[in-house]
DNA sequence: ACGGCTAGCAAGCACCCACTTGCACACATT
DNA sequence: AATGTGTGCAAGTGGGTGCTTGCTAGCCGT
């Protein structure tokens, strides 16, 4: 017989996918079982209840993706930030349905907040650390909080990734070069000494 | 007997509120009827089906809020943009639950997209128009697309407004001055000639 | 060969869902 | 007085939902 890890893993993957598309209420144990090709009873034998199944599935899904890291010592600011932002944006795009659904479910299941928030938060602090180092090295001349432009970049990457498919006409900027433009805005706002 | 307009209006308001909090599946005709203090049958007599009820309620709700406009001729750039951004942010905050829910429901009900997208889009084009005029007047010196910083500002106002309550620790910037900081980032990136 | 583990299947329980039907009551207009 | 309109109430239909129970069958290590 197949190992139990396989079944449990399949169930979590299927559950995460259905949850992303249909939300908490739409993720019925019958649908999960059918999509996973197992009996509905098996779902309850593994997880005990729908609530446990969903929470484990969401946590498992958010543990899958790993966020990009910026170099310890800033090199080519623009190139490194663009690459970082591209990776960030790619993650958001890949998980847009999950992000949208989690945002909506926070209202009824606020305990989901921290699982989905830890990764992006760490990434943002990484960017703050990176840019602080760059400014300490005299390569960013603008004064003021370094958090503001970082928050703006993160929010933009999230928003554009999340709404990209559902209302593509909402962004007047063509997709591929948009991220470079956003990074340029940030760098110019922070007084980058190297002009592109 | 009370006029029919009253009942229908109450039903739409109640439905919009419940939908924002519980989503499409969570908005049951029983719950709506109970919250509105009417019989469930009355709901069907007014709207015919749950689908019609929800679509009319959402459209009615999104027709309620009116978005800010920037002056036809740019005056004090920073003051006008801050005031505009504050008003924008206030709308998003007031309707955060509805926005989150709509974002999630787009997956299953894509026809909701344009009702919730028209307002913000018009506001963004207004901002582009305003800043283009300011640049034509020689008050913004940076070259490049004017859309990028506007998109970033819009995305930031949306994101911060939408996630503000659910993960307040996510924004490292204190609430009230954050918007001014964001506007300053935009202005500096665009090469505003007036320093604050 | 045997016990434990994992799974399938069939059936059922109590509840919620959207939606319908039939009847009665109060009011407003005519 | 008659009519129409908006509403309430009681009941019911067919289906979905979370979850349980009892029973069977295959695979595993011992």
**DSSP strand content of chain A:** under 5%
Segments of chain A where pLDDT lies below 50 for 5+ residues?
none
How far the N terminus sits from the C terminus of chain A, by CA atoms, comes to: 60 Å
Q: What's the gyration radius of chain A in Å?
A: 20 Å
What's the pLDDT, averaged over the residues of chain A?
92
Structural class of chain A: mainly alpha
* Count of DSSP H/I helices of chain A: 9
Question: How is the biggest beta sheet of chain A arranged?
Answer: none
Account of the protein in words:
The structure is a homodimer of 196-residue chains. By secondary structure, chain A is mostly helical. The first copy, chain A, is 70% helix and 0% strand. Chain A contains nine helices and no strands. Chain A has helices at residues 4-26, 29-36, 40-47, 50-64, 77-94, 96-105, 113-136, 147-163, 175-189. In chain A, helix 1 packs across helix 2, helix 1 crosses helix 6 (96-105) and helix 7 (113-136) packs across helix 8 (147-163). Chain A is elongated. In chain A, 42% of the residues are buried. The model of chain A has no long low-confidence stretch (mean pLDDT 92). At the A-B interface, helix 1, helix 6, helix 7, helix 8 and helix 9 of A face helix 1, helix 6, helix 7, helix 8 and helix 9 of B. Chain B binds a DNA duplex (30 and 30 nucleotides) through helix 3.
């Amino acid at each position: 017989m197949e190992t139990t890890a396989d079944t449990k893993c399949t169930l979590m993957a299927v559950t995460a996918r259905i949850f992303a598309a249909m939300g908490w209420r739409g993720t019925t144990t019958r649908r999960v079982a059918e999509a996973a090709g197992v009996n509905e009873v098996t779902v309850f034998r593994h997880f005990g209840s729908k609530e446990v199944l969903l929470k484990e599935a969401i946590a498992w899904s958010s543990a899958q993706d790993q966020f990009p890291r910026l170099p310890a010592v800033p090199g080519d600011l623009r190139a490194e930030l663009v690459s970082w932002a591209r990776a960030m944006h790619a993650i958001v795009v890949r998980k847009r349905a999950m992000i949208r659904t989690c945002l909506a479910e926070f209202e009824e299941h606020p305990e989901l907040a921290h699982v989905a928030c830890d990764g992006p938060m760490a990434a943002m602090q990484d960017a703050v650390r990176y840019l602080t180092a760059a400014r300490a090295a005299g390569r960013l001349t603008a004064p003021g909080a370094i958090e503001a432009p970082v928050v703006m970049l993160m929010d933009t990457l999230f928003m554009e990734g999340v709404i990209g498919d559902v209302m593509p006409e909402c962004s007047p900027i063509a997709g591929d070069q948009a991220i470079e433009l956003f990074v340029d805005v940030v760098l110019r706002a922070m007084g980058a000494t190297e002009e592109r």
